[in-house]
Amino acid sequence: MSPMRIIILLLALAAAGGAAFLVLQLSKPQVVTETVLQEKLRIEEREVSEVEVLTVLRDFAIGETIKAEDLQWAPWPKANLVEGYYVQTTVPASIETLTGAVVKAALYKGEPLLPQKVVIKGDQGLLASMMDPEMRAVSVEISAESASGGFILPNDRVDLILTYDQAADDARAIPERTIATTIVKNVRVLAIDQNFATNAEGETARLGSTATLEVSPQEAELLAMSMRRGEVSLSLRPLDQMASGTDRSPRIELLEGDDGAAGSGITIIRNGQPSPAGVGGN
Predict the structure, then answer these.
(1) Torsions phi, psi of 99, nearest 5?
(2) Is the pTM here over 0.70, yes or no?
């Protein structure tokens, strides 16, 4: 064999070896990619493991009653389960159990139910469960005139106004007159008659005869005394002033008999006639 043919054969073998090596190197990343994708698919499959939990189909205000048609089982990621959720495999009769329950904390469409947010039908202390621990519930008689024409509804906030007739006091130069004064501000309405919230049909007004209010123990005493003294009216606060707060300004001094009326306080004798300080001539 001639030297030229030997050289050509060796070059051909080198080229073939190089091509084989290149193919081998190019095939390795593809195998790694397939392995990574398979592992990723297995991880995602574990993460979307779901169970059926009980959810609400609409928004609920405090005090509304839950009906069977307001509930449904919905898929929920098993990894995101919260202790207390009603799970179908654990408590399959939850819809029947919760039908007729009353909401004591606001619920929103699609939200899973928790036992802490409802009062099951037949349980005691519905109104007490809706109140802050340090507060008391007191009922006052109302009318269209004393309750904004029936447009005050549960969960609204009101100011309480006491109106009474003041007898004349000649010794203090106080004439007989009618006095109106705000005794407590920013009071939450718990119920009108026995309705704890607006109904599902979107009640816009309710003319009741009794309003149940959430007040502190001292405010309860003030309100009880005020109802004996005169008429208590409810003044509806604007929506942007309905947030809970400490701006209540109770007229606690009325419990001591001081009505804060003009003319009370120091009395000065002028020309043998009594008059309150700051009234009268020289």
Answers:
(1) -65, 125
(2) no
